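mind reviewing these tokens:
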Amino acid sequence: MLPRLAATAFRTLLAAITLGASAAATAGMPVFCERGKEVGAAEQDRVLRFAGIVKRELEASGGSVALIARAGLDLSRFDLLYSHAGVALKDEGSAWTVRQLYYACDESRPRIFDQGVAGFALGADAPGKGHVSLVFPDGDRAARLEQAARDKPLALALLAGRYSANAYAFGTRYQNCNQWVAELLASAWGGVQRRDKPREQAQDWLRAQGYDAGPVKVKSRWLMFAGQFVPLVHVDDHPVEDLYALSLRVSVPASIEDFVHRRSPQARRVELCHDTRRIVVHRGWEPIGADCAPAPGDEVIPLDA
């Protein structure tokens, strides 16, 4: 059971820049740390069936590591679907867990947590629908990613002491969940040494390899200004030119997947989604879309069966 945690990076960002319009509020301020949501029996059963198909795809890969991402709150205003990424790892007992960064509210700092696939899927804000993306790097890249992800001293060396939902992808003042994953990838594939400023090394390597973080487009200067007054959202780490352009370079799952696809051309991607009627399994790099509409060749699993 995870301790009480903050919402994922972009859920917090969305709540922040809308000043609580999309989140519960107390005394007029958004709530960023919340207790587990009540999920009805039917909703829980549906999400657990969905998680079972996700685990099936992980197992069918024949490997023991994958990048995994989850959709949370509606981020369509940012042209984003996925909000939170981690690394799925298979243990010796054949169970899969997700290693990821969360903000631990009770400790007021980011932490690395391992979570089962079912819990990861249940973390979506709307249990009536959900999206999960799996990316399986090819060959040696998969092995190096797994080695890095299982290296607990390295994982902790890459962990920042301060959290920001919209952390600048090439800064070390703060960190968000996806930024930790990107820096872990850089450590795995770029040979970063954890003893000598590993975050700086990782970011330098990502820049040199053309990693394109975001950008997250903020729709108005008023929203950019408002976000400065909300906990867990900061703009003091972003370049001034980005703030003026209303375009923040923030690590998001889509950026990480694009980077992996370029670096690992034979990597495979499986996208799974569900609504209240069906689960759709889509294999390939073409996005399935927020509406979870199956394309020709997709596997469709009825949920009323």
